[in-house]
Design a protein that fits this description.
four-stranded antiparallel sheet, seven-stranded mixed sheet, alpha/beta, 18% strand, homotetramer, globular
Chain lengths: 343, 343, 343, 343
Amino acid sequence: MLRFDSDYTEGCHPRVLAALTESNMEQTPGYGEDPHCARARELIRAACAAPEAEVHFLVGGTQTNALVIAAALRPWEGVISAESGHINCHETGAVESGGHKVMTLPHENGKLSAAAVRAAVENARNDPNAEHIVQPGMLYISQPTEFGTLYSKAELEALSAICRAADIPLFLDGARLGYALAAAPSLTFPDYARLCDAFYIGGTKVGCLFGEAVVLCNAALKPHFRNLMKQRGAMLAKGRLLGIQFETMFEDGLYLACGQNAVDAARRVRAALLERGLPLAFDSPTNQLFVNLTRSQMEKLERGFALGHWDAGSGENMTLRICTSWATTPEQTDALIAAIREL
Amino acid sequence: MLRFDSDYTEGCHPRVLAALTESNMEQTPGYGEDPHCARARELIRAACAAPEAEVHFLVGGTQTNALVIAAALRPWEGVISAESGHINCHETGAVESGGHKVMTLPHENGKLSAAAVRAAVENARNDPNAEHIVQPGMLYISQPTEFGTLYSKAELEALSAICRAADIPLFLDGARLGYALAAAPSLTFPDYARLCDAFYIGGTKVGCLFGEAVVLCNAALKPHFRNLMKQRGAMLAKGRLLGIQFETMFEDGLYLACGQNAVDAARRVRAALLERGLPLAFDSPTNQLFVNLTRSQMEKLERGFALGHWDAGSGENMTLRICTSWATTPEQTDALIAAIREL
Amino acid sequence: MLRFDSDYTEGCHPRVLAALTESNMEQTPGYGEDPHCARARELIRAACAAPEAEVHFLVGGTQTNALVIAAALRPWEGVISAESGHINCHETGAVESGGHKVMTLPHENGKLSAAAVRAAVENARNDPNAEHIVQPGMLYISQPTEFGTLYSKAELEALSAICRAADIPLFLDGARLGYALAAAPSLTFPDYARLCDAFYIGGTKVGCLFGEAVVLCNAALKPHFRNLMKQRGAMLAKGRLLGIQFETMFEDGLYLACGQNAVDAARRVRAALLERGLPLAFDSPTNQLFVNLTRSQMEKLERGFALGHWDAGSGENMTLRICTSWATTPEQTDALIAAIREL
Amino acid sequence: MLRFDSDYTEGCHPRVLAALTESNMEQTPGYGEDPHCARARELIRAACAAPEAEVHFLVGGTQTNALVIAAALRPWEGVISAESGHINCHETGAVESGGHKVMTLPHENGKLSAAAVRAAVENARNDPNAEHIVQPGMLYISQPTEFGTLYSKAELEALSAICRAADIPLFLDGARLGYALAAAPSLTFPDYARLCDAFYIGGTKVGCLFGEAVVLCNAALKPHFRNLMKQRGAMLAKGRLLGIQFETMFEDGLYLACGQNAVDAARRVRAALLERGLPLAFDSPTNQLFVNLTRSQMEKLERGFALGHWDAGSGENMTLRICTSWATTPEQTDALIAAIREL
């Protein structure tokens, strides 16, 4: 059984493991105040052309989202998100648990339009009962989205411009940012740093054992972020474990290579699906593909492959999610393609 | 200028004021542990035919909603509400501030269908990622709804049955319950007590100076409710002020009479609107009417009357809300009707 | 049975009731946006010589404390309080419920020393593990304290200076401020407004039916305070009820007169206690007296008077609290004094 | 420079690293639903002789404490802790951030007496104002304590008996439980499982890269614990990383061996300190030693060794903390002892 159901089925890239092994018996201070974290921060700031940015290392995505949002919002504020946003759907109410409403907007394949965001902000502020209404205090998007889709540079610039005009920070969830960078190289790290107030570079799903690197670009989000991390149980005692991983990822381009591997594999699988005439539920340029299968096709394919169940659909048709990753080998991709051809 | 824009524009029914005046220099213990509160509780339990119910007196609706919901939910649970629900739209995120998600469902004129509620519960529980999804822990409805509409007895029974089958409490927001009782007398206090796990009898909008009486029918909601009240700043030092008001309201039917006065006035206004050919945005049997006017009609009417702006509509048409109340006099209604006829 | 166990055993001053009665059928907008609230705010600002202050009307003390503290603190901050502070002891964890630690310091008869506050702030900030420690974000004191004692002008100035040097706001809980003003007239409303960042003028215990007037002097505390009020269930629908009461209290000195009545009565009772040779547990210049009685003295006195049980003491001795109030009549005081003489 | 300042200065035990390396390219499901986690749970249940216990794997101690406490408490409840407790002092208010008060009691070298706990519970429950007082809902202790001290079996039994009599769960923070097990082998895993309602087996400080294993013995704490984990950002995507580590620790006694290594080293250092006539601030049988040094002794020792600064003391004297760990080698211990002898 080969797993194509998610992009966190293996441990980590062998080079990351090697770095952890090599440094294992080094003695360092805790809580991220070690030389590996310091160097990893410098490498990320350099990659982002953002020398003033603060970089923090966290363990996972839900934790990261909740923290950045908590750092940004005052109690009466909420965060705008697509209805399909991870914070709205799949974090067991983490944002609300921190006291804030997720203010949802309709989406198109996971993406929000700039016009819809502007209207939402204006409506909340101009409502005659504005004091009775949660006020937007942040915009949350993800890149790629839950649907594997991408904001173009123009779209991201439009969202950024609206957020700055409205004076609310833009936060980009980059749990799979490596796959976005590979699929749409015209949007680079410096672009994300320039257009976002905060974003994170996902490690868990892109070759690290675990870990996310938050980049805080907006000065207003920086004060006491580490206090918040500690309070919410997000300051790793051996913070160096995160520093070592991101140091490895950023010292010579491994992060981008991990992303490229997954996108290349996904492109091959996508071509095979189309060639076989299997309809995509919606098109995705990144490492997640969404294909409509009949129930019997699904059962046949799942004999050899674990796949994600995206939508039960009605009756005979199902939408399945196929994930490639930094770890997908050509042989695994070949096997999947062969099975697709036989459907 | 006559105000028909809300049902809390005056102080309180003269008999309530008289009772407050008469008792003013009595000395009593604080925090609701006085004879007036005791008697008011007894009167409400008797009216509800619910001798086991706990009755608590609170100051306002947002406070009441937040408290009952906090008493019911565990941290990972949310409360189902219509998208139009007061807790979702007009309480500045009070429920989320307490750590819980408002799980919204589409509505029809403010009402939820039993089928939609059942599906929402089942989907959340049966999702393969159920641990990543907020689980429904309560159903919140209001009677009348934000649209002035009413659940019929059959509809309320269906919702109640679903909640009991799913083992989640049903909480009914009765901020305007007096107007529901007058408009739909087939649903009585004992019905509400029988079908709901908790509900509240709104005083603020139905003749009291202020105050809401929460009726906790489900034993699971009772323990330490007063501790929660104190913690959330909702335990009035001179609790007797609430006891005196509800005592007056329930000792000989004043609460129902207050409701009837508003509904009678609203019926006269509704008839005048229809007679004049002015379209209702949707029909309401209670004390709130929603009428579509042109901008020039609106401006003309608002020269003499304060009205609620429900929806800016597009271009020339507006939906206005007309509220009658326990305080509306026949002369005030006559004046409004005369103005409607001249539109 | 006469009650001297608290200062909220009656309703309100007759003039307050008359004002509520007179205005009862006026029609006004809700939520504190009516002419009575506007005038009451102006009167309070004038009394405080603080034309820039924001004044908000709230229902009760726990609610007020929780709100002002929530408006001041970021998530990782706590509020410094005496161990005996009301927020620490008698609000069922309201501050913690809002996410913040109450950082307690030892006290002397309810009072904090400036040196202790300074040391607490410095220790928290200079700790090598400062990120792991709650950082002080506000100082909370009460005037009078829980022990009926008062900060002198010099003491309040010292606390204020330390808070400003440390850049943390000073919040003064004035639930019984009227009694402080009567007992120590050298500290005036303008002094409180000048030295505090926020304070509240207690109405519930000083002649109002209910209500507290928050005075926000520090501009940083003002933004969106009303949103927070609404969110926490603290925005009264008929906000005018509070405006009418404070308007009456401040239009010609009634608030100060209410305070004076209680302090005058307490002085008479205190003299009687000392004359009778009954030891004070600690001396209080305000409307609360704390006297040590033997169990048999207590039982004798409690046949005719309800008193507060402050401390069970050990064995035969009890500390009882005697409260006078705005409502205490000379005849009631005479009766208590007569009983004291007969102990 | 050798580090004896904490027990998390290295990575992990080589066997743990080997297990992570060996399993690195295995494909497994996420979120702790993999065979390694399943086996690790079984091994821990077996070690604890607690077949009904639920075992969950978390990343760090603050996170674990906050979660278990959140699972146990209702909103109006707090958790009893020693004033010196980690949750009170060094978690940036994590418990309060979740809405709950830490109810502190005085301690003796980090330990609480059963009598003090019983009195605290009784006082809170029997207070005439019990509704205004946070009610104890859990007892939190740590073993070893912050002072390196240990509860004896009799002491732990007494605390357990009081908690059961009072119907509040007993939660034991075992961040360094391995060192307690080595220093006081008469208290075994089955004892902890029998006497506690919940406890955790610390991995971060006892040989794992990171990770804590929570053992929930009391059925009331189990429902939906994983939902809470996910909500609070504590459900690791690659949960297997924790399973693999604890599997390794528990399959043949490695966890106990790690503890023993540190305790053996600490005993040698302790003997050297006493032999040299250096006074212990208080005695500790576990891997943390607290020694009083003069400033010049400290400076001399710190030329070669990183040590913990426990207490600045007054003037010339300092209390330093010396930590050994699973990673301390005989050579490192020899070096430290040699330096101590030369002080």
